[in-house]
Write a structure and sequence with these properties.
With about 160 residues, the protein is an alpha+beta fold. The chain is built from five helices and seven strands; from the N terminus they run H-E-H-E-E-E-H-E-H-H-E-E. It has helices at about 20-30, 45-55, 90-105, 115, 120-130; strands at about 35-40, 60-65, 70-75, 80-85, 105-110, 135, 140-145. The strands form two sheets. The chain has a four-stranded mixed β-sheet. The radius of gyration is 20 Å and the shape is elongated.
């Protein structure tokens, strides 16, 4: 059976699938903004839930409803000792290592053995240069010290 496609005008609505990569970044930026923020079209994957868990550990409050996250309280600047559960999310771990060290003196990131086996050499080098104590095992990374501002060289 032969079908003929005729010239016409397209119409309708397209819903763009949510981006996990953008969601991590939007959540963190919103948490740092110190104001109420709404992020729409968020799919709460395990990785995004890990990022939300870490933000909550740092004092953030939020509500989640109908694929929308409303940030209602910014990060708590008074927290000095925190444990962050990154679960299996490499993005969460890599974002929260430097972020948490700008906010807290003592940070422990926990996660699966597979997550902890990933390469973090760039952080180890920075910690050595800045005198931040760093201990890593198959279940966690513990860091003591504050990340100082400065010039950072990172391989692309």
């Amino acid at each position: 059976m032969k079908k003929i496609i005729k010239k016409s005008r397209a119409f309708g609505t397209i819903v763009v699938p949510p981006s996990k990569s953008y969601a991590h970044r939007l959540l963190i930026a919103s948490a740092l903004s110190q104001s109420e923020c709404t992020i729409e079209n968020v799919e709460c994957s395990k990785d995004i839930l890990a990022t939300l868990s870490c933000l909550k550990s740092l004092g953030l409050d939020y509500t989640f409803q109908d694929r929308k996250i409303i940030i209602t309280k910014s990060l708590d600047e008074s927290i000095q000792n925190v444990t962050l559960n990154c679960d299996e999310s490499g993005s969460t771990l890599r974002f929260f290592i430097p972020l948490s060290l700008t906010k807290c003196e003592h940070v422990k990131c926990i996660g699966t053995p597979r997550l902890m086996s990933r390469g973090l050499t760039i952080y180890e080098d920075i910690f050595r240069e800045q005198g931040i104590a760093y201990t890593k095992n198959e279940k966690s990374i513990s860091m003591d010290g504050r990340l100082k501002s400065g010039y950072f060289k990172v391989k692309g």
